[in-house]
Amino acid sequence: RRAQNWIVERVALIAAVEHYTAVLGAWILDAHALDRAGADPTMMDLLRWHGAEEVEHRAVCFDLLTHLDDSYLRRLRSYIFVTPALFWLWVRGVRFLMAVDPHTDRKARWRDWLSAARRELLPGPVELAREVVPYLRRRYHPSQQGSVEPAIRYLATSPAARAGH
Questions:
Q1: What is the pLDDT of residues 92-147, one digit of tens each?
Q2: Which one-letter DSSP state was computed for residue 106?
Q3: Contacts of residue 101, Cβ cutoff 8 Å, sequence gap at least 6
Q4: Among residues 46, 36, 52, which one has the least CA distance to residue 160?
Q5: Contact 42/153 with Cβ under 8 angstroms?
Q6: Separation CA 108–CA 96 (nearest Å)
């Protein structure tokens, strides 16, 4: 029983993480401001390919969780744990990347994030916070948010995905 509880807890945590990765995946598929800003096309293809993959499998872990244990409280508890942890990891990652970037001597600042979000180069804090609410609904399922069609269309045309075949 303890071993099963251990695995179900981990599945619940991954289901919560996958909610955010699917949200970010959908965002990157539509992030045309990055193209206009001159982002490297190969890097954009890699990011969009990864984003499309995240959107495509967004319900797998959630479905496994509901099969193993349909406890709303477990799902809620996991999400409450994952949300600040992912935010902390994101902030830490951005700080690291900016610290090692040879093209900048600045440290990451909150206003930089807000400025980039206004220019649609990153998802903004309000946009991300809005994505918390659907997961908190008792009858939530990942298929209720967005569509996998843009992801499937992108994977069919992605140079990286086509090269892999």
A1: 998 898 889 888 877 778 888 899 999 999 999 999 999 889 999 999 999 998 88
A2: P
A3: none
A4: 46
A5: no
A6: 9
